[in-house]
Design goal:
single chain, alpha/beta, UDP-N-acetylmuramoyl-L-alanine:D-glutamate ligase, Protein-Tyrosine Phosphatase, Chain A, nine-stranded mixed sheet, six-stranded mixed sheet, 17 helices, 22 strands, globular
Length: about 475
């Protein structure tokens, strides 16, 4: 907790109002301001936070940080008793600077996570494992960019022992910048795929951007890497950072922690056992350990292995870590199981999508759905020149896995339909629509005539708003 005078000193800016106003945590929406918060009057595309300064004070914010230029042409207002105002050049820069200072003051260990797929799920899993021993603070949902990342840090309680921080990126240098705010002790890369190819141009640039996390680790830090990921294996060979690999088959590197004997259980769960290679810097277990993961698919098992690897490095008893995974809660819109109309079962995985995650979710649909399955697939964004190929490959996977019905949504997803058709799925089982409304109507018709107990996967990139499809097909 800081007082307003301390905040002004850290920012090297002038303070107006009460110099002893105590502040903890932050917000950018005046409606969400809590007692004692710092309110940053950020300027967005449609909303100017400076219009809500007085509202933030009324809701309980003790300190407002606003931009000098934005205040110049506004009517003067009275700062309430006990409150403070600090004027800065940039609210975002001020937030990032204060987050850097708060991170240093906390002194918490930092576990940072990035990757093309699975980073939010892995973040949730790492937090679940570490929470069995430590006081952990993590990003809400996927607040992982230059705005959400510093907000996460500033909202970390004073007694936080470990920060578990997801890092997103849209270009070279962005992960390195986030690492300068909260210096990571352990860096986890889930995988290096083709997401953001449209922005970065080449697979090599994507790999370079992700690897900035590993390059930012201190001499005593650890890189936790996926042995099934080709680029992680390549880059690890050139790095002197201490490395801990996790995996299943060990396709590109021998894993230090391996998952074996994957077996489905329940509606969406997976049982598997653990095997540990002899590795001098973490305790090695000898007796078989069974993990009861409440999620399906090899991709989620890999993410859980990453979390257990971090736990081993930070001396969380393995059985405790497994219990943390068994009771974990995921961020919203990821593999949510919901009851659907006509006794169907909906797998709503609508937060994001790329070819790798699409294929993984289709595998789950095939594994759990049995004889009657419907995939409702929308567009995948940010694939650049590989967009057509990526959608086409997903369609091929639909046919190869034996999914019985396919609905596509959006112009780009027509390539998914073509891929399924080319691979042998009957044209009578493929339906393409430019918008969600047509897809919803057709899905309702199909579920009315298909056998009860049909499983439905709904997935696309976030911008497709496919949660509206889920809602239209939900029962009750």
């Amino acid at each position: 907790m800081w007082d307003s005078q301390k905040i002004a000193a850290l920012l090297k800016e002038e303070l107006w109002g009460n110099s002893q106003a105590l502040a903890f945590g932050c917000c950018i929406d005046s409606r969400l301001a809590k007692e004692g918060n710092i309110f940053f009057a950020l300027v967005g595309e449609k909303v100017d936070g400076h219009d809500y300064i007085e509202a933030a004070w009324q809701k309980g914010a003790s300190v407002v940080i606003a931009e000098k230029e934005r205040l110049e042409n506004r009517p003067a207002f009275i700062i309430p008793d006990g409150k403070a105002l600090i004027q800065v050049e940039s609210c975002l820069d001020a937030m990032q600077s204060l987050a850097r200072s708060w991170s240093r003051q906390l002194g918490a260990k930092v576990v940072a996570i990035t990757g093309s797929n699975g980073k939010t799920t892995t973040k949730d899993m790492v937090a679940a494992v570490l929470s069995r021993k430590y006081r952990v603070h993590k990003n809400l949902e996927n607040q992982n960019n230059e705005l959400g990342f510093p907000m996460t840090i500033l909202n970390a309680p004073e007694n936080t022992e470990i920060l578990v921080l997801e890092m997103g990126m849209r270009g070279l240098g962005q992960i390195a910048f986030l690492c300068s705010i909260a210096r990571p002790d352990i860096g986890v890369i889930t995988n290096i795929g083709t997401t953001h190819l449209e922005l970065l141009g080449t697979q090599e640039n994507i790999a370079r951007a992700k690897w900035e996390l590993i390059e930012a680790l201190p001499p005593g830090g650890f890189a936790v890497l996926n042995s099934e990921d080709e680029w992680s294996g390549k880059l690890a060979q050139k790095s002197s950072v201490k490395q801990f690999f996790y995996g299943l088959a060990g396709k590109f590197h021998k894993p230090n922690l391996r998952g074996l004997n994957l077996t489905p259980f329940g509606a969406l769960g997976t049982h598997f056992t653990l095997e540990s290679e002899n590795w001098g810097q973490v305790p090695v277990f000898t007796s078989p350990v069974t993990v009861k993961l409440p999620l399906p698919g090899e991709h989620n098992v890999l993410d859980s292995l990453a979390a257990l690897s971090v736990g081993m490095l930070l001396e969380v008893p393995l059985q405790e870590g497994c219990e943390g995974l068994a009771t974990m809660e995921l961020s919203r819109m990821r593999l949510e199981l919901q009851p659907g109309i006509y006794e169907s079962t909906l797998i709503s995985d609508v937060y994001n999508a790329n070819p790798t995650s699409m294929k993984a979710s289709l595998q789950v649909l095939r594994e759990r759905g049995g004889a009657s399955t419907l995939a409702i697939l929308g567009e995948m964004y940010e694939l650049g020149e590989t967009s057509r190929e990526g959608h086409y490959e997903v369609g091929q996977a639909v046919a190869d896995l034996g999914i019985t019905e396919l609905i596509t949504v959006g112009k780009l997803a027509e390539e998914t339909a073509r891929g399924a058709l080319a691979r042998g799925l009957s044209p009578e089982r493929i339906y393409s629509f430019p918008e969600r409304a047509g897809a919803i109507k057709k899905a309702q018709e199909l579920l009315a005539r298909l056998s009860q107990g049909t499983w439905v996967l709904i997935k696309a990139s976030r911008g497709m708003r496919m949660e509206e499809v889920t809602e239209a097909l939900r029962r009750g």
